[in-house]
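Suppose you are handed only two things: the residues of a chain and a line of SMILES describing magnesium ion. What would the bound structure be? This form records exactly that question and the answer produced for it, so the two can be stored side by side and reused later without any lookup.

QUESTION INPUTS
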Amino acid sequence: MTDPNQKSFPVTWDQFHRDSRALAWRLAGMGTFDAVVAIARGGLVPAAIVARELNIRTVETVAVKSYDHQNQSGIQVLKPISQQVLDLAKTGKKILIVDDLVDTGSTARVVREMLPGAHFATVYAKPKGRDLVDTFITEVSQDTWIFFPWDLDVAYVAPISGGTD
Ligand SMILES: O=P(O)(O)OC[C@H]1O[C@H](OP(=O)(O)OP(=O)(O)O)[C@H](O)[C@@H]1O
Ligand SMILES: O=c1[nH]c(=O)c2nc[nH]c2[nH]1
Ligand SMILES: [Mg+2]
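ANSWER OUTPUT
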């Protein structure tokens, strides 16, 4: 169930691009990555931005579903990491895993087990999952729901003073 006291943190495309670039800047100081693994679906957009900034051409996905709308369900791995990328990791190549955020850390825990030596990066982090992430940009409180630009539309908002116009 959605908590009625939950705060909301809406993120525009512009802000998300800036924050993903900021993540790329931070990662750029950590050496060269040989491949990026995006955690689909939320990690696809930041992974594309980071791959562009860091010139990473090998881009892989792992599909993990943890939530139905705002309700957490059991973790389902819908598409595993390809053998080609697992083999790269085995030969000592540097792999970067990217997701949009870490919340409880359940998704991060499952994907980290698949690639134990990889660097795990997210744009946003909540306190419960923060320690599972090697690099992130912005922390929000645990009772905040982040609304990503692909889940939003432009809509009317009532004035602060109340009323309808
Ligand atoms: O730290 P956790 O509590 O696991 O939550 C974080 C995960 O939840 C969201 O994915 P979701 O399962 O909603 O799927 P999606 O990426 O397809 O939206 C988000 O993109 C992260 O992957
Ligand atoms: O869009 C989202 N916003 C969040 O804050 C969140 N936490 C887990 N999964 C999430 N998805
Ligand atoms: Mg996700």
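WHAT STANDS OUT: The pocket of magnesium ion (ligand 3) is lined by residues 39, 42, 99, 107 (CB under 6 Å). The chain has a mean pLDDT of 95.
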